[in-house]
Amino acid sequence: MNAMALCFLFSLLVPLAGAGLALINAGLGRSRSAAHAMLASLAIVGVAALAYFACGFAWQGSTELPAHAVTVAGKTWNWLAAVPFFLRGIALDGSPLSIAVWLGMLGAGLAALIPLGSGADRWRLGASCASAALLAGFTYPLFTHWVWGGGWLAQLGPHNGLGRGFLDAGGSSSIQAVGGLTALSIAWILGPRRGKYAPDGTPSAIPGHNAVLVLFGCLAALMGWLGLNCAGSILYYGLEPGRTVLVAVNTLLGAAAAALASAAFTRTRFGKPDASLVANGWVGGLAAGSAGCAFMQPMAAVVTGAAAGILVVFSVEWIELRLAVDDPGGAIAVHAMGGIWGVLAAGLFTGRSGQFVAQLAGVATLLGFVLPLTYGLNRALDRFYRQRVAAEGERRGMDLFELGAGAYPEFMTHTEDFSQR
Amino acid sequence: MELAGFLLLVAGWAIVLAAVAVLKTVPLETVFILAGVATEVVGLVLVIRTHLAVRSARG
Question: Could you tell me the CATH number of the domain that includes residue A86?
C-alpha cells in the first residue's frame, strides 16, 4: 500500500485518543461537572481545529514549505514557517503536505485537551476555549515547527552532528509535554478546588466519580496512540510502511509495562492497586513511548514504559503534596513528566552518538520557551477574561452553573448540600 | 520572584540556543546545554517556591 494512504488511514484513529482523554478527564472529575467536562472537550477540539486552520499551520509549516531563517556562525537556522494564513495555496490532495496539515490539526486538538484534566471542576467553558485557541494557534505550532517542520531542533543532526537531530515520532514533546506544561500553567492560574487543601495545607482526597469511564478511556486512548505513532513515524521520519508493526508493538508494550509497573508500585505502597493511578500510568506510558517508538527495540520500549509508570505515580503524589498543585486528571504528571521522560528515553535508547544531547536541547526548549510562553499567554488571558468559575459555580457544580442541567439528573444529591456552610 | 524565575527559565534556554548556534564541538555543546538546563531548573524551583508562598499566604 502507498505510504501516504497508509499514513492517512492511521491518522483516522487519532480522534480516539481525544475521546479517551475526554473520558478520562470526565471520569476523574466530580459527577456534578461531568457533562461540562465532555462538552468542554468537544468545544476545545473544535476551537483548536479552527485556530490551527486560521493561523496554526501558518506558523508550523512543513519541511517542503518556505520558512524564515537566520544565519549564525555560518549555519542557517530555520525558526518560523512563512506560510499564508487559512491554508491558502495548500492543496489538500493526499500529498505528504496535506497529510501534515491534517495530522497537525489532530495534534493541536489533542494537545489542547490535556489542560482540561488539570482545570477540572473549576475552569470556565469560555476560558478553556480561549486558552485552547492560544495553544493551537501559537504555542503548539511554534514548537512543532522546530520539531516536525524542519526547524532548528530538527537541524541539530545535520548542523551539529547530534544524532539525527531532535527526534519525536509521535509527539511526546510537541503534543504531550506542550499540553502538560500548559496544564501546569492552568493549575497555577486557577488555584486548587475549594476544599482540596485545609488551611494548614493538608490535601484531602477528592476521588474521581467514575472509574469505568476512566479505564474505558485508556483503551480508546491506546487505539488513538497507535494511529498517532504510526502516522507520525511515516510522515515525519519516512518510516517504511512495514516497519509500523514495530511502532505498534512498542506502543502497546510501553503502555502495558507502564500500567503493570504502576499497579505493582501502588500495590506495594498502598496495599491494593489504585485504579486511577494505574490509568494515569497507562496513559503516561503511551505519552512516554511516542517519541522513540519508531527507533527503539521492544525491550527499550518496555523499560521506557515501566519507568514512566513509576514516574507518573511518584509525580502525582509529589505535585499534590509538595507543590500544592491541584491536578484532578493527573495531566501534569502524565503528559508533562511522561512526555519529557519519553523525549530523554528516545535519546538514551536509540544508540546514536549525540542523540541524547539533541533530546536535552529539546527538553530545555520545553522548559525555557514553552512553559514561559504558555504561562504568560494564559496569565494575560486571565487578566481580560477570568478563567476560574465563581465560588457559587464550584459549589453547585459546573453542569448546573454553566450548562443548566447535569450529566446524571436522577442523582442530584451531594453530601455538601447537606453540610453546614 | 515569579518573574525572576521565568527570566531564569528563558535565560537557560538562551544558553542552550547560543551553545548550538556558536559552539563547534559536541563535548563543549554538551557542557553548555547542561549548564542551560541547570539554570532552567533553578528558575523552575524559584517559580514553584513563589507559587507555594502565595498559596501559604492565602491560607
Answer: 1.10.3430.10
Q: Are A368 and B34 in contact (CB < 8 Å)?
A: no
On whether any CB of chain B is under 8 Å from the CB of A348, the answer is no
Whether A318 is covered by a domain: the verdict is yes
Chain B residue closest to A365 (CA)?
Answer: B13
d(CA A54, CA A137): 8
Helix (H, G, I), strand (E, B) or coil at A72: strand
Cell for A116? 482540561
Residue A421 lies in a domain: no
How far is Cα A96 from Cα A93, in angstroms, rounded to an integer?
9
Domain count, chain A: 1
The ipTM of this complex is: 0.97
In the chain, the amino acid numbered A157 is G
Give contacts of B10 with chain A, Cβ < 8 Å: 368-369, 372
Nearest one of A107, A176, A222 to A339, comparing CA atoms: A176
A136 found inside a domain: yes
421 residues of chain A, pLDDT tens digit each: 789 999 999 999 999 999 999 999 999 999 999 999 999 999 999 999 999 999 999 999 999 999 999 999 888 999 999 999 999 999 999 999 999 999 999 999 999 999 999 999 999 999 999 999 999 999 999 999 999 999 999 999 999 999 999 999 999 999 999 999 999 999 999 999 998 998 888 899 899 999 999 999 999 999 999 999 999 999 999 999 999 999 999 999 999 999 999 999 999 999 999 999 999 999 999 999 999 999 999 999 999 999 999 999 999 999 999 999 999 999 999 999 999 999 999 999 988 889 999 999 999 999 999 999 999 999 999 999 999 999 999 999 999 999 998 899 876 555 555 555 4
A46 Cβ contact partners less than 8 Å away, ≥ 6 residues apart: none
Query: Any idea what the Cα angle at residue A39 is, between residues A404 and A21, rounded to 5°?
Result: 140
Contact A245, A252 (CB under 8 A): no
Please give the C-alpha separations between residue A367 and each of A243, A400, B36, B58, in angstroms, as whole numbers: 32, 38, 10, 27
Instruction: Count residue pairs from A and B with Cβ separation < 8 A.
Output: 77
